[in-house]
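Work Package 3 (structural annotation) set out to generate three-dimensional models for the target panel prioritized at the project kickoff. During this period the team completed the workflow that converts sequence records into C-alpha coordinates, so that structures can be stored uniformly alongside our sequence database. As a representative example, we reproduce one entry of 258 residues exactly as it appears in the project archive.
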Amino acid sequence: MPTLHTAEIVDPLSTKSERPNVNENIELEPSLAPQNNTKGFFLDLVIYLSVMFLIREVYFSSLHFLANGLFWSFTTLVVATWRMRARGVTWWDLGLRKPENIGKSLLTTGAILAVVMALIIVFEIVKDQIPALMDSDTSDESAVSRFGNLKGNYPLFFTIIFFIWVESALEEMLDRGFLMNWFERLFAGTPLNTILAVLIQAAIFGFRHAPSHGLAGAITVSIIGLVMGSAYMLLGRNLWPLIIAHCVLNTISMLDRV
Protein backbone atom coordinates (compact mmCIF):
# COMPACT_ATOMS: atom_id res chain seq x y z
CA MET A 1 0.00 0.00 0.00
CA PRO A 2 1.40 3.46 -0.88
CA THR A 3 2.56 5.53 2.04
CA LEU A 4 1.54 9.17 2.45
CA HIS A 5 4.49 11.37 3.37
CA THR A 6 3.79 14.56 5.28
CA ALA A 7 4.95 17.55 3.24
CA GLU A 8 7.06 20.20 4.83
CA ILE A 9 4.74 23.03 5.77
CA VAL A 10 5.36 26.36 4.07
CA ASP A 11 3.55 29.42 5.38
CA PRO A 12 2.09 31.18 2.31
CA LEU A 13 2.00 34.46 4.23
CA SER A 14 5.69 34.44 5.04
CA THR A 15 8.17 36.50 3.09
CA LYS A 16 10.17 34.82 0.36
CA SER A 17 13.37 35.01 2.36
CA GLU A 18 11.74 33.24 5.32
CA ARG A 19 10.57 30.24 3.32
CA PRO A 20 12.47 26.95 3.20
CA ASN A 21 13.69 25.84 -0.20
CA VAL A 22 11.21 22.98 -0.53
CA ASN A 23 11.10 23.03 -4.31
CA GLU A 24 13.08 25.34 -6.56
CA ASN A 25 10.32 25.15 -9.18
CA ILE A 26 7.72 26.64 -6.83
CA GLU A 27 8.42 30.08 -5.44
CA LEU A 28 5.52 31.71 -3.68
CA GLU A 29 4.97 35.40 -4.17
CA PRO A 30 6.38 37.40 -1.26
CA SER A 31 3.86 39.12 0.98
CA LEU A 32 4.14 42.87 0.74
CA ALA A 33 2.73 43.56 4.20
CA PRO A 34 4.68 43.09 7.43
CA GLN A 35 3.67 39.64 8.66
CA ASN A 36 3.73 40.63 12.34
CA ASN A 37 0.85 43.00 11.57
CA THR A 38 -1.56 41.28 13.97
CA LYS A 39 -3.94 44.25 14.03
CA GLY A 40 -4.12 44.20 10.25
CA PHE A 41 -5.04 40.52 10.10
CA PHE A 42 -7.54 41.01 12.94
CA LEU A 43 -9.19 43.85 11.00
CA ASP A 44 -9.31 41.66 7.88
CA LEU A 45 -11.05 38.90 9.82
CA VAL A 46 -13.57 41.29 11.39
CA ILE A 47 -14.48 42.65 7.96
CA TYR A 48 -14.58 39.21 6.33
CA LEU A 49 -16.61 37.45 9.05
CA SER A 50 -19.04 40.35 9.32
CA VAL A 51 -19.72 40.24 5.61
CA MET A 52 -19.84 36.43 5.55
CA PHE A 53 -22.63 36.28 8.14
CA LEU A 54 -24.49 39.50 7.37
CA ILE A 55 -24.73 38.81 3.64
CA ARG A 56 -26.82 35.73 4.51
CA GLU A 57 -29.54 38.07 5.71
CA VAL A 58 -29.97 39.09 2.08
CA TYR A 59 -32.19 36.53 0.35
CA PHE A 60 -33.83 36.96 -3.04
CA SER A 61 -37.00 34.89 -2.75
CA SER A 62 -37.51 34.97 -6.52
CA LEU A 63 -34.23 33.10 -7.02
CA HIS A 64 -33.30 29.47 -6.35
CA PHE A 65 -31.50 28.75 -3.08
CA LEU A 66 -28.33 27.86 -5.01
CA ALA A 67 -28.34 31.27 -6.70
CA ASN A 68 -28.56 32.93 -3.30
CA GLY A 69 -25.82 30.68 -1.92
CA LEU A 70 -23.50 31.49 -4.81
CA PHE A 71 -24.27 35.19 -4.36
CA TRP A 72 -23.21 34.92 -0.69
CA SER A 73 -20.04 33.00 -1.54
CA PHE A 74 -18.95 35.24 -4.41
CA THR A 75 -19.55 38.30 -2.24
CA THR A 76 -17.25 36.93 0.47
CA LEU A 77 -14.79 35.89 -2.26
CA VAL A 78 -14.58 39.52 -3.37
CA VAL A 79 -13.96 40.64 0.23
CA ALA A 80 -11.32 37.95 0.79
CA THR A 81 -9.53 38.85 -2.47
CA TRP A 82 -9.61 42.53 -1.50
CA ARG A 83 -7.98 41.83 1.88
CA MET A 84 -5.47 39.46 0.26
CA ARG A 85 -4.38 42.18 -2.15
CA ALA A 86 -3.88 44.48 0.82
CA ARG A 87 -1.45 41.90 2.23
CA GLY A 88 0.23 41.09 -1.08
CA VAL A 89 -1.09 37.51 -1.14
CA THR A 90 -2.62 35.69 -4.12
CA TRP A 91 -4.84 32.63 -4.43
CA TRP A 92 -1.85 30.87 -5.98
CA ASP A 93 0.01 31.49 -2.71
CA LEU A 94 -2.84 29.95 -0.72
CA GLY A 95 -2.88 26.75 -2.77
CA LEU A 96 -4.93 27.34 -5.90
CA ARG A 97 -2.07 26.12 -8.06
CA LYS A 98 -1.40 23.01 -10.11
CA PRO A 99 -0.29 20.09 -7.91
CA GLU A 100 3.30 18.97 -8.39
CA ASN A 101 2.22 15.33 -8.63
CA ILE A 102 -1.28 14.51 -9.93
CA GLY A 103 -1.12 10.90 -8.73
CA LYS A 104 -0.11 11.92 -5.23
CA SER A 105 -2.86 14.53 -5.16
CA LEU A 106 -5.48 11.94 -6.13
CA LEU A 107 -4.11 9.63 -3.43
CA THR A 108 -4.43 12.51 -0.96
CA THR A 109 -8.02 13.08 -2.08
CA GLY A 110 -8.79 9.40 -1.51
CA ALA A 111 -7.23 9.51 1.95
CA ILE A 112 -9.26 12.60 2.87
CA LEU A 113 -12.48 10.91 1.75
CA ALA A 114 -11.65 7.75 3.69
CA VAL A 115 -10.93 9.65 6.91
CA VAL A 116 -14.03 11.83 6.58
CA MET A 117 -16.31 8.86 5.99
CA ALA A 118 -14.76 6.88 8.85
CA LEU A 119 -15.21 9.78 11.30
CA ILE A 120 -18.79 10.38 10.16
CA ILE A 121 -19.62 6.70 10.75
CA VAL A 122 -18.11 6.93 14.24
CA PHE A 123 -20.08 10.11 14.94
CA GLU A 124 -23.33 8.49 13.75
CA ILE A 125 -22.75 5.64 16.21
CA VAL A 126 -21.97 8.05 19.06
CA LYS A 127 -24.85 10.34 18.13
CA ASP A 128 -27.38 7.56 18.67
CA GLN A 129 -26.27 7.36 22.32
CA ILE A 130 -26.87 11.08 22.95
CA PRO A 131 -30.58 12.01 23.18
CA ALA A 132 -29.99 15.67 22.30
CA LEU A 133 -28.44 14.66 18.98
CA MET A 134 -30.72 11.81 17.93
CA ASP A 135 -33.18 13.82 15.85
CA SER A 136 -31.27 17.05 15.46
CA ASP A 137 -29.95 16.49 11.92
CA THR A 138 -32.35 18.38 9.64
CA SER A 139 -30.19 18.32 6.50
CA ASP A 140 -32.50 15.92 4.60
CA GLU A 141 -35.62 18.00 5.21
CA SER A 142 -33.70 21.17 4.46
CA ALA A 143 -32.38 19.74 1.19
CA VAL A 144 -35.93 19.34 -0.13
CA SER A 145 -36.79 22.95 0.62
CA ARG A 146 -33.48 24.24 -0.77
CA PHE A 147 -32.99 22.09 -3.87
CA GLY A 148 -36.43 20.63 -4.57
CA ASN A 149 -37.53 17.01 -4.38
CA LEU A 150 -34.64 15.01 -5.82
CA LYS A 151 -36.23 11.58 -5.25
CA GLY A 152 -36.02 9.85 -8.64
CA ASN A 153 -35.43 13.21 -10.30
CA TYR A 154 -32.15 12.78 -12.17
CA PRO A 155 -32.78 15.74 -14.53
CA LEU A 156 -32.91 18.04 -11.47
CA PHE A 157 -29.78 16.40 -10.06
CA PHE A 158 -27.79 16.99 -13.25
CA THR A 159 -29.14 20.55 -13.48
CA ILE A 160 -27.87 21.61 -10.07
CA ILE A 161 -24.79 19.45 -9.48
CA PHE A 162 -22.40 21.76 -11.38
CA PHE A 163 -23.44 24.71 -9.20
CA ILE A 164 -22.93 22.58 -6.10
CA TRP A 165 -19.40 21.82 -7.29
CA VAL A 166 -18.75 25.54 -7.74
CA GLU A 167 -20.02 26.19 -4.23
CA SER A 168 -17.82 23.35 -2.91
CA ALA A 169 -14.74 24.90 -4.52
CA LEU A 170 -15.57 28.34 -3.12
CA GLU A 171 -15.98 26.93 0.39
CA GLU A 172 -12.53 25.34 0.26
CA MET A 173 -10.94 28.51 -1.09
CA LEU A 174 -12.58 30.69 1.56
CA ASP A 175 -12.67 28.45 4.63
CA ARG A 176 -9.42 26.57 4.23
CA GLY A 177 -7.49 28.88 1.93
CA PHE A 178 -8.29 32.34 3.27
CA LEU A 179 -9.85 31.97 6.72
CA MET A 180 -7.45 29.40 8.12
CA ASN A 181 -4.31 31.20 6.92
CA TRP A 182 -5.54 34.48 8.37
CA PHE A 183 -6.32 32.90 11.76
CA GLU A 184 -2.93 31.21 11.71
CA ARG A 185 -1.26 34.57 11.20
CA LEU A 186 -3.50 36.23 13.83
CA PHE A 187 -2.20 33.77 16.43
CA ALA A 188 1.38 33.82 15.09
CA GLY A 189 2.68 34.76 18.55
CA THR A 190 1.52 31.45 20.04
CA PRO A 191 3.08 28.00 19.48
CA LEU A 192 -0.36 26.53 18.72
CA ASN A 193 -1.34 29.00 16.02
CA THR A 194 -1.81 26.35 13.31
CA ILE A 195 -3.89 24.09 15.57
CA LEU A 196 -6.03 27.04 16.65
CA ALA A 197 -6.55 28.03 13.03
CA VAL A 198 -7.71 24.52 12.09
CA LEU A 199 -10.09 24.28 15.06
CA ILE A 200 -11.60 27.75 14.67
CA GLN A 201 -12.26 27.46 10.94
CA ALA A 202 -13.89 24.04 11.50
CA ALA A 203 -16.14 25.50 14.21
CA ILE A 204 -17.13 28.43 11.97
CA PHE A 205 -17.72 26.04 9.06
CA GLY A 206 -20.09 23.96 11.16
CA PHE A 207 -21.81 26.94 12.79
CA ARG A 208 -22.54 28.46 9.39
CA HIS A 209 -24.39 25.28 8.37
CA ALA A 210 -26.34 24.97 11.64
CA PRO A 211 -29.49 26.83 10.46
CA SER A 212 -30.04 24.35 7.60
CA HIS A 213 -28.48 21.21 9.09
CA GLY A 214 -29.42 21.31 12.76
CA LEU A 215 -27.06 20.56 15.66
CA ALA A 216 -26.00 17.06 14.61
CA GLY A 217 -25.61 18.16 10.99
CA ALA A 218 -23.47 21.13 12.05
CA ILE A 219 -21.19 18.82 14.05
CA THR A 220 -20.87 16.55 11.01
CA VAL A 221 -19.91 19.56 8.88
CA SER A 222 -17.39 20.64 11.54
CA ILE A 223 -15.81 17.18 11.40
CA ILE A 224 -15.45 17.56 7.63
CA GLY A 225 -13.90 21.00 8.14
CA LEU A 226 -11.50 19.58 10.71
CA VAL A 227 -10.29 16.87 8.33
CA MET A 228 -10.04 19.26 5.39
CA GLY A 229 -8.15 21.83 7.44
CA SER A 230 -5.73 19.25 8.83
CA ALA A 231 -5.08 17.81 5.37
CA TYR A 232 -4.42 21.27 3.97
CA MET A 233 -1.87 22.08 6.65
CA LEU A 234 -0.14 18.70 6.70
CA LEU A 235 -0.06 17.79 3.03
CA GLY A 236 1.46 20.74 1.23
CA ARG A 237 -1.21 23.46 1.45
CA ASN A 238 -2.64 22.73 -1.97
CA LEU A 239 -6.39 23.33 -2.33
CA TRP A 240 -7.11 20.99 -5.23
CA PRO A 241 -7.25 17.68 -3.29
CA LEU A 242 -9.64 19.36 -0.85
CA ILE A 243 -11.80 20.81 -3.63
CA ILE A 244 -12.06 17.43 -5.37
CA ALA A 245 -12.85 15.65 -2.08
CA HIS A 246 -15.49 18.25 -1.21
CA CYS A 247 -17.11 17.88 -4.63
CA VAL A 248 -17.17 14.09 -4.27
CA LEU A 249 -18.71 14.29 -0.79
CA ASN A 250 -21.45 16.66 -1.94
CA THR A 251 -22.11 14.53 -5.02
CA ILE A 252 -22.53 11.43 -2.84
CA SER A 253 -24.80 13.39 -0.49
CA MET A 254 -27.00 14.56 -3.38
CA LEU A 255 -27.11 11.12 -5.02
CA ASP A 256 -28.29 9.67 -1.71
CA ARG A 257 -31.37 11.91 -2.02
CA VAL A 258 -32.19 10.90 -5.62
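The first helix runs from residue 38 to 54.
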